Amino acid sequence: MHSNISSSLLLFRNGRRLGALSLLFWCCLTFAEDNRPNIVFLLTDDQNLYSMGCYGTPDVKTPNLDKLASDGIVFDHHYDTTAICMASRANIMTGKYEYKNGTNFSHGDMREEIWAEAYPMLLREAGYKTAFAGKFGFNIGDGKEGRGRLPEGEFDRWGGGPGQTHYQTAKNKSMAKYAEEYPHSTLSYGAFSRDFIKEASQSEEPFCLSISFKAAHRPTTPDPKFDGVYAGQTFTKPGNYGREFSEHFALQSKQGRQYVRFEEWGYSDRYDEVMKIYYQQIYGVDVAVGMIREALEEAGVSENTVVIFTSDNGFFCGSHGYGSKVLPYEEASRVPLLMYDPRNGNSGKGYRTDALTGNIDFAPTILELAGLEIPESMDGRSLMAVYNDPQLEIHESLQLINAWGPLVAQSLAVLTKDWKYIYWPYGADEFVPTEELYKVSEDRLELLNRVQKNQPPEVLREMRKRYDAAVNDWREGAVPFNRYDGYADFYDRRIPWAKKKGNLSQ
């Protein structure tokens, strides 16, 4: 019954607001028993895959996240289709690739009509109580300079903030009331969640809580409460640590800030010190996750609440001699994903899945959980199909997009379960458009560029076809604003550099 009524709501909203007849349906719904699940979506910032025990890293302490992993399902092949915070968050909210939601630094804010079909808006219109706290990550506007806004009035409870927000809770206006007890923002989001869960669980309507932690984003500011957690500890470096493991990478990839930050941020000579701070920030997140799950238990709603945990992008942390994120390599684009649905028979069995999934899949997943129809305009697929069958594949391929930063360092990649093809289009001065091909199912450290070895040629031909199809999708589906429509020509490997347009990022 609820699913049909919710679908009716979407039909009558006509892309923007509920009509009178929709409201009549909704009034009927409020008097009916509502068994739809609650949803908790937890997002960290700049968290790479090897920062958690459940992903096989013995150096770190993440007991609450490891417990969430054992209770639910671990996704081992999950990617952020744009590995930078603003665009990644827009992808998550809308279920669309960056060029279809039109949102990223240096491009522009999310348009109102795009936001109207983001999952928080659709769920609230369907009767969910909604809450958001943390770094929202993008503004909503009409394309006019200085007109962007945060949607604080469009959630039932708001603890969000502009820009990068602050690690000092007192500096986050919407969270300031938690500052005395939780002066560091990470645990304040646990407290915000606790209070919202307690309040929302008293209602007959289900709730959707979205928390966006600032951690582990720089400036590195761990909660001093946890200074002793990693005191005196040293950390194992990944097998591709250091500059010698990027000699086979495209010259273009070394032109952005990622390359210089290997030294600027201390990975080259202060690795243990830098990683201690990084892992301590994530430990704080782990404690906050424990607070949230405890609140669900205390409110008596844990058995009807789906919990999703992931990150907006990864972090190099010295792999290949790089720092930061953005680039389409594994450490920056492949991130943790844990999902727990206590109602599902596959929970608690220690299942893992290597199905290819992406951040565009979250909005469709949340809509399906809420009993809503998934708009055809979304690029993602619901993860519930994989949760029901961890052997199932929902994507043949995904796109990894980098349309931000210096034009020389921008790229487009296509990814299958086994292979990754990257194209670096820039061809001016000493640069030559460059291809890279990795068999990621066997080479997670990306140590062998198969293009340089011309092996296997049939796979390269197939991945080029997939890439060309992605470029065509961009050309046909890009929004006609925020300078996305011209990028298809820039990425098109079939167009000579001399015929391509100028600096599209400006």
Description:
The chain is α/β, with parallel strands linked by helices. Helix content is 31%, strand content 14%. The protein has helices at 2-13, 20-30, 63-71, 85-94, 98-101, 112-115, 119-125, 185-200, 257-264, 271-298, 330-333, 362-369, 384-388, 450-453, 457-477, 487-491, and strands spanning 38-44, 73-75, 78-79, 110-111, 129-135, 140-141, 157-161, 207-212, 305-311, 337-340, 352-353, 357-358, 398-402, 411-415, 419-424, 434-439. It has an eight-stranded mixed β-sheet, with helices on both faces. Strands 13-14-15-16 form a four-stranded antiparallel β-sheet. β13 and β14 (411-415) form a beta hairpin. α1 packs antiparallel against α2 (20-30) and α8 runs parallel beside α10 (271-298). The longest helix is centred in the middle third of the chain and has 28 residues, at 271-298. The radius of gyration is 22 Å and the shape is globular. Residues 1-32 have low confidence and may be disordered.
